[in-house]
Amino acid sequence: MSANLAQAGAYLIQILLGLYVVTVMLRFLMQVSRADYYNPVSQAIVRITDPAIRPLRKVLPTFRGVDFATLVVAFVIQLIAVMLVMSLYGNPLFHPIYLAWVLVGMFSLILKIYFWALIIMVIASWLAPYSQHPVLVLVHQITEPICAPARKLLPPMGGLDFSIILVFAFIYIIDNILVIEPIAHGYLHVPPGLILGL
To answer: What is the DSSP letter of 175?
Structure first.
């Protein structure tokens, strides 16, 4: 297979399967944060991901708010994407290192989702501070579990909530300095752009 065809195929795999992994991880974060199930956006995410997750629910039930079926589906889909992309470039279809790549990638993806959700919250607070749009409501519900502890450390002052700055700093430190970057690119040598979130 020529390099251009391999690159095009890898791009399509990463986009299509990557979008599905993001949707599955959003569902996981909705469950962890106990977001409103009846929100139209939540309903759409559940409908899209249910066919893959529902069969596993019989084997892997939810435990203390953690839906292991959802995590397994995200892991398997991301692993399939890695295997397909690596095989397109002439690498082995499977290697044990792929499992580590996917685990680190999933953790990084969660941090990226939180990061962009916080960006949406900040922009919405300027442009539409009192909006009850379903997307903004869901974003607020997903981010509240990580914003609430920061709000205790740095309460709102003069009507302004600076606690989000602490959350941004925490995400940046974990993602770029302490955990994700050093492990992914320092120890595991994940190829750039291979894993969604890395």
So the answer is: I
Name the amino acid, one letter, at 54: R
Angle between helices 68-88 and 96-127 (to 10 degrees): 110
At 171 the three-state DSSP class reads helix
Going from the C-alpha of 97 to that of each of 30, 73, 91, 100, 104, the distances in angstroms are 29, 19, 12, 5, 11
* 3 Cβ contact list (under 8 Å, min separation 6): none
Per-residue pLDDT of 26-54, as tens digits, reads 999 999 999 998 999 999 999 999 999 99
Cβ atoms < 10 Å from Cβ of 42: 21
Longest dimension (CA), the chain: 61
